[in-house]
User: Which sequence fits this backbone?
């Protein structure tokens, strides 16, 4: 393994492998986040599409997410396309990597598998904070959803202007 890491071409090859794998894992984390939002917010998106932006602003509704299912699906499609493209790049790269490294393999492919495993583990460890951040964002999303439900429930009671004004005094 030390022999491979001395040669610049092989080292660059492993670096590219790590970069592509890192991008794939990043997109998978992001994809999971947006799938959670899409799966959880269908009813809320219907409400929001009918609610004016002034109403959301006046009621302090924090909705930093797309306001329609179509926009969420567009975002997911973009992520999916990027993910497929990078996965394809990784497949091509792995074929090239095996040709670059193969001349220096004495025993077997075992060493290459060992390096691939190490790269996956480094990527996984390197993105731990990012995964934690996305999990926290999912929790924040649940609070935002709850706030929206409360505002929607209030307006479903058909309050008059005076009642709306009084409700703002209690916020």
Assistant:
């Amino acid at each position: 393994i030390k022999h491979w890491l001395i040669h610049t071409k092989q080292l660059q090859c492993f670096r590219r492998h790590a970069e592509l794998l890192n991008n794939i894992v990043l997109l998978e984390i992001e994809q999971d986040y947006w799938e959670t939002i899409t799966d959880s917010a269908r009813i809320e998106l219907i409400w929001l599409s009918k609610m004016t932006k002034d109403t959301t602003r006046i009621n302090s509704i924090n909705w930093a997410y797309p306001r329609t299912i179509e926009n969420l699906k567009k975002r997911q499609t973009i992520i999916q396309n990027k993910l497929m493209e990078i996965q394809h790049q990784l497949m091509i790269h792995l074929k090239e990597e095996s040709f670059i490294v193969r001349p220096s393999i004495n025993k077997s492919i075992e060493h290459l598998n060992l390096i691939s495993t190490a790269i996956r583990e480094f990527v996984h460890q390197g993105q731990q904070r990012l995964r934690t951040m996305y999990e926290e964002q999912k929790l924040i999303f649940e609070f935002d959803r709850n706030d929206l439900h409360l505002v929607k429930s209030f307006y479903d009671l058909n309050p008059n202007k005076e009642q709306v004004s009084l409700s703002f005094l209690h916020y």
